[in-house]
Amino acid sequence: MEQNLNLYQIFYEVAGCRNFSVAARKMYISQPAVSKAISRLEESLSVTLFHRSSRGVTLTREGELLYAHVEQALSALQSGE
Predict the structure, then answer these.
(1) How many other CB atoms are found less than 10 A from the CB of residue 66?
(2) What's the rounded Cα separation, in Å, for the pair 17 and 69?
(3) Alpha-carbon dihedral of residues 16, 74, 36, 58, nearest 10 degrees?
(4) Residue 12 has pLDDT above 90, yes or no
(5) Residue 18: strand, helix, or coil
(6) By C-alpha distance, which of 51, 50, 80, 43 is closest to 66?
(7) Predicted confidence (pLDDT) per residue in 34-74, tens digit
(8) Residue 24 CB: number of other CB atoms within 10 A?
(9) How far apart, in whole angstroms, are the C-alpha atoms of residue 81 and residue 73?
(10) CA 52 – CA 1 distance, rounded (Å)
């Protein structure tokens, strides 16, 4: 569960920043680690979560749906703390 939560947190940051490198700097981890985490999450869910371009990333339809759920879940965790 902890590993999945980490992947969802990385997904949430990338979606918010709309850029892998910016999200990596914000989380103090390497950009390749962020890319690998997103790839692992996409593989485990069997969906593409981001449209990638040289200008950054945007959420796919599936990514938007997941983002809404992850946002609620992370908010609930913060409230619980």
Answers:
(1) 20
(2) 17
(3) -30
(4) yes
(5) coil
(6) 50
(7) 999 999 999 999 999 999 998 899 999 999 999 999 999 99
(8) 21
(9) 13
(10) 27
Please check whether residue 6 is in contact with residue 77, taking contact to mean a CB–CB distance below 8 angstroms.
no
First to last CA, the chain: 18
Residue type, 55: R
**Residue ranges of E strands in 1-81:** 50-53, 56-59
**pLDDT of res. 2:** 62
**In the block, residue with structure tokens 């485990």:** 44
CA–CA distance, 36 with 31 (Å, rounded to integer): 9
The 3-state DSSP composition of the chain as helix, strand, coil percent (nearest 5) reads 75, 10, 15
pLDDT at 1: 59
Structure-token pair, residue 55 = 């200008």
